[in-house]
Amino acid sequence: MVNYDDRYFIGVKNYDNGDLNKETVFRYRQKNKVVWGSFEGGGAMHGNFIARVLDGDKLDMRWQYLNKQGEFRCGTCISTPETLPDGRIRLHELWKTAGAEPQEGTSVIEELPY
After folding, report:
1. How confident is the model at residue 114 (pLDDT cuts 50, 70, 90)?
2. 14, 19, 31, 44: least surrounded by Cβ within 10 Å?
3. In Å, what is the CA distance from 81 to each residue of 3, 4, 46, 70?
4. Residue 63's domain spans which residues?
């Protein structure tokens, strides 16, 4: 079972075309089957998320943030974990934005080294 508590992640793939990029740092917390956290950096002034842990330690997530242009963004994400050889976690994400012009895509975030 993956324990997401007190882990920090950065974007490593498909984060270069928007507000969230390699300068965005995500902090994860966990209690039982609930995961939550916050993020900032890059084009995000501040954001937060909440998720439930599904079978296979996947995360069913809802997220929101305020970007540097003062615009709110929100959406959903399904994250699938991969354990790297050094024990760090890599998350493969399928995300969708909400709003008048919804978008969807994939990205990868990876735990920062200890």
Report:
1. confident
2. 31
3. 11, 10, 24, 32
4. 7-111
The 10s digit of each residue's pLDDT in 65-104 is 999 999 999 999 999 999 999 999 999 999 999 988 888 9
For residue 19, give the CATH number of its domain: 2.40.128.30
Judge whether 1 lies within some domain.
Answer: no
In a domain? residue 2: no
**CA-wise closest residue to 78 among 54, 102, 98, 43:** 54
Structural domain total, the chain: 1
H or E, element range at 92: strand 89-97
Is pTM, for the whole model, over 0.90? yes
pLDDT tens for residues 4-39?
Answer: 999 999 998 876 668 888 899 999 999 999 999 999
User: With contact defined as beta carbons under 8 Å apart, do 29 and 36 qualify?
Assistant: yes
Q: Which of 86, 107, 89, 109 is nearest to 97 (CA)?
A: 107
